Amino acid sequence: MNISTILDMAAEAFGDRVGVVSGAQRWTYAALRSAAQNAAQHIRASGAQYVAMLDVTSPAAPVAIFAAAYAGVPYVPLNYRLTRPEINELLARVVPAYLVVGAEYRALVDARADLQLVDREAFLSLEPLAGAAAPEPAEDPRAVAVQLFTSGTTGKPKAAILRHENLMSYIMGTIEFASAEESDAIVVTVPPYHIAGISAVLSSTYACRRMVQMENFEPAAWLRAVREEQVSNAFLVPTMLQRVVDHLAARGESPDLPALRALAYGGGKMPLSTIEKAMQLFPGVDFTNAYGLTETSSTIAVLGPEDHRAAAASSDPAVRRRLGSVGKPAAVEIEIRDESGTVLGAEEAGLVFVRGPQVSGEYLSLGSQLDADGWFPTKDRGYLDAEGYLFLDGRADDVIVRGGENISPGEIEDVLLGHPAVADVAVVAMPDEQWGEGVAAAIVLKPGASAAIAELQELVKGQLRSSRVPQKIVFKDALPYNETGKVLRRVIRQEFAN
């Protein structure tokens, strides 16, 4: 099944329902389908093999996703925060291409004969081609629907492949068609080049839920949009939720968001103190932690609202700690393996593997990364508890190898975050002549708070083994994060290396 079916179903069932709100613009599902089908005719006529987009969130994002699907070519959104050379290097890998570009980014694109540029507003206003047949995409579930470039932190960005069958498996396995009421709305703050931005379009369209788009995130603007548009659902990365909590606390305000019923978060580690404060600020809101990857078509594990409430209210440490988990598998299988591939039991930390029809695990030119039994190595570390809740310890690449001992930064960070003065922390490896690698910590203190280095080291020593004690601690005003809420550990590691 082609993902364009999602828009067809929404337009045919609720064509007059508003699907996208972007500033003063309001697009119905019928208008979105008409724009996508018109664009598909132009894409086919151009001979392009890809539809690329270089722009912030706007109605062009859902139109381009579905236009590419109708035209039968992959959709490739690009990170507009990259440098000009980086952007053009990625474009050279997808030509001949049809590029939808925002006016402020057009100057970043080098002219070339095999790249057709179309401004965002012109793209959204395309008329049907005279004499052209209505687009009828081939029903090939194995065709590539989306190609996403990875962040490229350890080399050239890899091109992750998501096929129509992967995305449709995720949508149909997790969402009920037309399950949203006409008054329901979701505020979209994640950028269009992230898997969360793509899944927001597909899942909201399938649920027939109104999408309220924001080009950039700012706490006061987010609160205002949620209030004025009567938003019922929201998704935030942890740093965004922390900024909302801090914004309200600094002003002594209550959220005053009567329509908000559900708030999902994911994309990075959520500090326990942040989710606890958020649950207190939004007592009537259902919180969900969603863990997923680009290669898995989005969410693969969920800590649902009842899990949040049960953990927050429990005095049992084994139950309460689940507030720091990412929940249980959702429509997939998850297992933990050691370095040799042996499947581990409950409470045993190792590498996280996932299997299921929504899992692509495939890269252009590199092929499938699935093993013979269909399991994909996420390269995350973690463990399952006795009830099947998944706890993450960070990326496998982030493990500190001290004298042959593997040390997970996550367990040290959890201890340090338990100190009343610590607001944020990142633990990384630093060069050590004796042990190969040592433990280092960058810490952000809460406003007006103080803590001595020796005090923090003793805190870790008292709860973990002495090998886990950071040999160097630096205090910072803020940690470096990317726009989707992931701490840039490579930047911090480099600072300690220098």
Explain this structure to me?
- The chain is an alpha/beta fold.
- Among the domains are: 4-174, Rossmann fold; 399-497, GMP Synthetase, Chain A, domain 3 (2-Layer Sandwich), CATH 3.30.300.
- The protein has 15 helices and 26 strands.
- It has a nine-stranded mixed β-sheet with strand order 2-1-10-9-11-12-13-14-15, sandwiched between helices. The protein has a four-stranded parallel β-sheet with strand order 4-3-5-6.
- The longest helix is centred in the first third of the chain and has 18 residues, at 29-46.
- It is globular and about 75 Å long.
Question: Main traits of this protein?
Answer:
Rossmann fold, 498 residues, four-stranded parallel sheet, alpha/beta, GMP Synthetase, Chain A, domain 3, 15 helices, nine-stranded mixed sheet
The main sheet orders its strands as 2-1-10-9-11-12-13-14-15
Major beta sheet, specifics? 9 strands, mixed
Q: Helical element count?
A: 15
Task: Kindly state the percentage of residues in helix.
Answer: 25-40%
Structural class, from secondary structure content? Answer: alpha/beta
Q: So what's the overall shape? A: globular
How much is the average pLDDT?
94
Number of strands: 26
Name the beta content range. Answer: 25-35%
Rg over CA atoms? 23 Å
In CATH, the topology of the domain at 4-174 is named Rossmann fold
Low-confidence stretches: none
Offer a quick outline of the entry.
The chain has 15 helices and 26 strands. With 498 residues, the chain is α/β, with parallel strands linked by helices. The protein has a 9-stranded mixed β-sheet with strand order 2-1-10-9-11-12-13-14-15, with helices on both faces.
